[in-house]
Amino acid sequence: MSVKINIHPFFSHLTNDQAVVEVNGSTVGQCLEQLVAQFPEVRNWLFEKDGKVNRLVDIYVNGESAYPDELAKPVKDGDELHTVVIIAGG
Amino acid sequence: MLTRDELERYDRQILIKGIGEEGQEKLKQAKVFIAGAGGLGSVTTTYLTAAGVGVIRVVDHDRVELSNLNRQVLHWNEDIGKKKVDSATEKLKRLNPRVKVEAIEEMITEVNISQLVAGFDLIVDAMDNLPARYLLNKVAIERNIPFFHGAVHGFEGRAMTIIPGETACLRCVYRGAIVEGKFPVIGVTPGVIGCIQATEVIKYIVGIGQLLTNRLLIYDGLNMKFTEFRLKRDPNCEHCGNLRGKENSER
User: Fold this and answer.
1) How many structural domains compose chain B?
2) Is residue A90 part of a domain?
3) Is A86 within 8 Å of B176 when comparing Cβ atoms?
4) Hey, which residues does B187 pair with through a beta bridge?
5) Is residue A14 in some structural domain?
6) Looking at the whole model, is its pTM more than 0.90?
7) CA spacing 20 to 30 A to B54: which of A16, A17, B9, B213?
8) B96/B28 Cα distance (integer angstroms)
């Protein structure tokens, strides 16, 4: 299952400035773990210490919010994930 | 009833199908609360004043600093050191003396927020931090006041419109809390997002178009892309989860 993950600019420096990384997985969780396997430093951005998705990051699957239970959401070949970090400036 | 002067001043927007004199009258009767007179506040207050909103209450507790001037276009070099609300009010009154601009120099807190928004029809989020945004979102939900969110960082901006009890609220989307001090931003970003917020406000007041509800719009200025994400109300949302309504409706 080839899935594209769009990397938020806040941490794209940790993916060698790649804005999109292609991974394999059948759930959001598997895809994110694949991303971490390629770029270990990304883990701190994506996950809390307890393994849940970082509360500052929202995950979208094909443009739709994956919350709640993001990690268990199924994905299929060709799906696209977005990692979106909260911003707060005004 | 619009005066002859108002008919001339707003002539070009009265020509818009769906606005007309009736829509202009609605704008004149509207009372809009704008939280913040910084980057987003400069833009939203300017365009809503120009559009002829009846009453604008702008709340901010800061004074103008030199480092504000790259983006807070309502404040000029000569205003450094002045209260932002005074600097803003002075310009807005000169732009359109028919609009009643109320300036309040206060920090928005859990204690005063309910009183500050009392009597207002809409709330515009022009803040620079998440805790204040959550306060605004909560009071908007409690008082059933439409809430127009915007945020910026660097070349990136976001906007969404919240109709309490009907559409996803800010807390349905954002659950974390970051403490952000000095954030990077180029002035055009609040320019874009502030204009989107003001557009949403005008549409809501007049009752035309499709609002940015149940959708988070992300503007990426560096790549010049707008991306839209679909949202749903969170039934367990700590702000709006207990409200019943027309879930996920769009207008």
Assistant:
1) 1
2) no
3) yes
4) none
5) yes
6) yes
7) B213
8) 12
ipTM of the complex: 0.94
User: CA B186 to CA B70: how far, in whole Å?
Assistant: 7
Distance from CA of A20 to the nearest CA of B (A): 14
Alpha-carbon dihedral B174, B180, B184, B188, rounded to 10 degrees: 50
Query: How many structural domains comprise chain A?
Result: 1
**Residue ranges of chain B whose CB lies within 8 Å of a chain A CB:** 36, 38-41, 125-130, 133, 150-154, 156-158, 173-178, 180, 183-185, 190, 216, 218, 222, 227-232, 234, 236
Contacts of B232 in chain A (CB under 8 A): 65
Are A89 and B128 inside 8 Å of each other by CB? yes
Q: What's the CA gap between B6 and B14, in Å, rounded?
A: 10
Helix axes B39-51, B84-95, angle to 10 degrees: 30
Confidence of residue B170 (pLDDT cuts 50, 70, 90): very high
Per-residue confidence (pLDDT) for residue B245, from 0 to 100: 62
Mean per-residue pLDDT over chain B, rounded: 95
Q: B183 to chain A, minimum CA–CA distance in Å?
A: 6
Residue B190: CATH number of its domain: 3.40.50.720
Which residues make beta-bridge pairs with B63?
B83
Q: Tell me the shortest Cα–Cα distance from A83 to chain B, in angstroms.
A: 11
Residues of B in contact with A54 (CB under 8 A): 176
Q: Which chain A residues are within 8 Å of B148, Cβ to Cβ? A: none
Concatenated DSSP letters of B128-189: SSHHHHHHHHHHHHHHT--EEEEEEEBTEEEEEEE-TTTS--HHHH--------S--B-THH
The verdict on residue A12 lying in a domain is yes
> Is B237 a domain residue?
no
Residue B176 maps to a domain: yes
Residue A68 lies in a domain: yes
Q: Give which of B71, B156, B225 to mutate to test A binding, by max A Cβ within 10 Å.
A: B156
